[in-house]
Amino acid sequence: MKNIVHTAIDAGKFTTFLGALKAAALVDELRATGPFTVFAPTDDAFRRLPGGMIDALMNDIPKLKAILTLHVIPDAVALKDLQAGSIKTIEGATLEVALRSNDVFVNDAKIVHPNIAATNGVIHAINMVMMPKKPALGAAA
User: In Å, how far are 72, 96, 114, 131 from 81, measured between CA atoms?
Assistant: First the structure.
């Protein structure tokens, strides 16, 4: 078995996500001991972003890093162990897990391929790129 990064490479459907991790200098972090759960957007999920957005994010490393770390939690959690409610990401934000019918959603992203095992955690493929919540108007800077 391989670490999360090499497992994602072998899966063949996370090339844009992996490229973004490299651009944001997060590859080594996800090669580390962990454990991690990565909600990894598939290449199809990235293709659904508005035109030009991927290139814009690749040129805004702080924003890219905030988006990518929103997809990682500091624990290995199998699909069967995900419960409705809030979970905290390594970025410090909160994700909402919802169970609808036989599907599991993280924020509004549906887990389309769960439990891709790695030595330092687990990958759940999701069908969209999650974005950080915009700060409320009037929030202190």
Answer: 16, 14, 12, 24
